[in-house]
Amino acid sequence: MFRVAICDDEATSLQINQILSQQILEEEGIKCSIDTFDDMLVMTRALSAESADYDVLLCDILAVGMNGIEAAEELRKLGEKLPIVFISSTAEYALDGYRVHALRYLQKPIEMDKLREALLEAYRIRGVVEECLKFQVGDRLYKIPFNEIRYLESQGRDTLVITGSEIICSHMKFSDMEKALPEELFYRCHRSYIINLAFAKNLSRYMFLTKENVEIPVSQQLYNDTKKRFAEFELRKKR
Description:
The chain contains seven helices and 15 strands. The protein is α/β, with parallel strands linked by helices.
């Protein structure tokens, strides 16, 4: 789940940024939750809480009481590595934005394409660093980054997790493994197989061929939907 925080003390801007962000992430097939704040101090406290786990902050740089730069400075003091995208009607504070390591600086009225680029960049950053499949095998806890998993295979009551270097056998249910994987990257193309679309080289009738020349079966009932999902994934990569 990609968690977004948006802060703006102008109600209209806050609503627009929320709607646009939701639309972009849905179009990209990214599961998300979006929380909004109209007060910088409240936002800063929320993001600095131990339970906070946001993946990107969209923040108006000017606000009553505390501006976005000051809020970012407070977060950075806490060691917060959260990607911050500043949104403002002026370029006056752009250099200050870089001082607090802002990811992007966007001007109002916000352009859809530039917001999309910023959100996807934040998603890639957080995905590489933090997103992984977690499961237990005996006394060992595995944390396998999603971008290392080639595919998963169901074998009876066990699930095989295949990476580029090993095959791990887990007693975790195949359906539970599926729920823990991001839909925008993984696809269940067969009752016994879930493929990482990033490692699919091509799709022929009822069969995926991976970049490592492994054949992954596609069920007849899912073939048309599989073609659609694979085409959408390839299109997103080209943007």
